[in-house]
Automatic annotation (TrEMBL):
PANTHER family to which the protein is assigned, alphabetical: HTH-TYPE TRANSCRIPTIONAL REGULATOR ISCR, WINGED HELIX-TURN-HELIX TRANSCRIPTIONAL REGULATOR, RRF2 FAMILY
Lineage: Bacteria, Bacillati, Actinomycetota, Actinomycetes, Micrococcales
Keywords assigned by UniProt, alphabetized: DNA-binding
Protein name per its UniProtKB record: BadM/Rrf2 family transcriptional regulator
Keyword Ribosomal protein set for record: no
Species the sequence originates in: Sediminihabitans luteus
GO CC annotation: cytosol
GO molecular function: DNA binding; DNA-binding transcription factor activity
Length: 152
């Protein structure tokens, strides 16, 4: 599975907004600087997040962006979907839209299981978790396993 630069940047910028916790609007320039994200690229990402209702914005003096809701209600899955669409694609299609024949017929359940596992992580981790530096206990156990850090 690949996480696009767009999704990575969207999560990082959203984490900055969560850290501001609605105290004030944060400009795109400030977000770009804080996370070393190309400013023009970030503008497009923020537009997608706003279109999906994850962030709100205000133009003018004192304007900028802020989260549309509490950080504990915004999952990483929601952010990725807002900027990239469905979490798992196979050849540009959702696994549930595929069919396989013959010896490859049992491949479909593999793709569906992969999607379920990706969801199991990304739908549980929120911006509040990121800002607090914590993960759900079972996910932290995965991270604590040295094998998780190895590239076979």
């Amino acid at each position: 599975m690949r996480i696009s630069a767009r999704a990575d940047y969207a999560i990082r910028a959203s984490a900055e907004l969560a850290a501001a916790a609605g105290d004030h609007a944060v400009t795109a320039e400030t977000l770009a600087r804080a996370q070393e994200i190309p400013h023009k690229f970030l503008e497009g990402i923020l537009t997608a997040l706003r279109r999906d209702g994850l962030v709100t914005s205000q133009r003018g003096a004192g304007g900028g962006y802020w989260l549309a809701g509490p950080p504990e209600d915004v999952t990483l899955a929601a952010i990725i979907r807002a900027v990239d669409g469905p979490l798992v694609f196979v050849r540009g299609e959702r696994p549930s839209d595929l069919t396989y024949d013959g010896a490859a017929s049992s491949l479909l359940p593999v793709w569906v299981a992969l999607r379920a596992n990706v969801r199991a992580v990304l739908e549980r981790v929120t911006l509040a978790d990121l800002v607090a530096g914590r993960l759900p206990v079972d996910l932290q156990q995965l991270v604590d396993d040295d094998a998780s850090w190895e590239n076979p």
